[in-house]
Amino acid sequence: MYHQPVLLKESIEGLQINPEGIYVDATYGGGGHSKKILEKLGNGKLIAFDQDEDAQEHIMDDSRLIFIKHNFRYMKNFLKYLGYEQVDGVLADLGVSSHHLDAPERGFSFRFDAPLDMRMDQRAPLRAVDVINEYNPSRLQEMFREYGELRKTRSIVDAIVEAREQQYIESTFQLTGILKSQTPVKYRNKFLARIFQALRIEVNREVENLKYFLGQSNEILKKQGRLAVISYHSVEDRVVKNFMKTGNFEGEVAKDFYGHEQTPLRVINKKVITPSHREIQSNNRARSAKLRIAEKQ
Fold first, then answer.
1. Are the CB atoms for 124 and 57 separated by under 8 Å?
2. Where are the domains of the chain?
3. Angle at which helices 206-220 and 75-82 pack, to 10 degrees?
4. How far apart are CA 202 and CA 196, in angstroms?
5. Cβ atoms within 10 Å, residue 249
6. If you average pLDDT over residues 64-87, what whole number do you get?
7. Which of 43, 63, 102, 250 is 20 to 30 Å from 238 at the Cα level?
8. Which residues lie across from 295 on neighbouring strands?
């Protein structure tokens, strides 16, 4: 399976689908969420985005589906080109898919020895190998601190810089070998997961693209249209939470002259929605998922 859809029932129900409505699946992947949306549509339309070439192998044959092979940061432009100024709902399942993690040649996982790539869009110029070998130390430290949420980034970067001065670092196992001494064995997998997460976010400009996407979602949603976003780590969840709550990424509520709060979205689920114990048992990769839903006011 390319990717087992996470929080499928909860996210689709959260959209409150109008059978005649226009919807966006911003992260098509294996088409799991799209399939469920199409089941609820009558004469409506679904516009799906995915920048990964492999996702095209899973495009469903349905006249109501329009697939666009691009990053969701270009959502508004493509919708305008197709003649859709506003839509009834937008769904995004963020992060890396099971397909990416299980395909050794893509370099997303530290479980396999593979080239340091990590590009979701294989047409993109920046690879993980470029980041590791060419970024200056201060930029690497900032990346691991911000996107990997790691504390002792100085020693991590020192180890990388020392190693790359001796030999070009081009594989996942080279990198994990260099970082072996940076954390105790019992924490090593969690530590490496954060290293690889930081690299993946940087290579794919995930936070930057997410901010573009959220801003555009607010612009294209009809009044009472729904936005549903599934995130997998606190870096992206913080961005989503702040935006849904305040309409900006700083989390500061703007007020008008009279002190009235000005928020473009109304948060639907005050408490974040997480997978059930049953879902986690059947799909362990769902364990960190968080679903947030908001409605355009």
1. no
2. 8-98+208-296, 125-203
3. 40
4. 10
5. 17
6. 97
7. 102
8. 226, 266
Superfamily of domain 8-98+208-296: Vaccinia Virus protein VP39 (3.40.50.150)
125-203 under CATH 1.10.150.170, yes or no: yes
pLDDT at residue 248 tops 70: yes
**Where do we find the tokens 């050794």?**
104
For range 271-275, the mean pLDDT: 97
Mean pLDDT to the nearest integer, 197-206: 96
CA torsion sign for 51, 53, 54, 58 is positive
Distance of alpha carbon 238 from alpha carbon 201, whole angstroms: 14
Sequence-distant contacts of 250-257: CB under 8 A, at least 24 apart: none
- Indicate the length of the chain as a whole number: 297
Cα 112 from Cα 90, distance rounded (Å): 35
Are 292 and 229 a contacting pair, CB within 8 Å?
A: yes
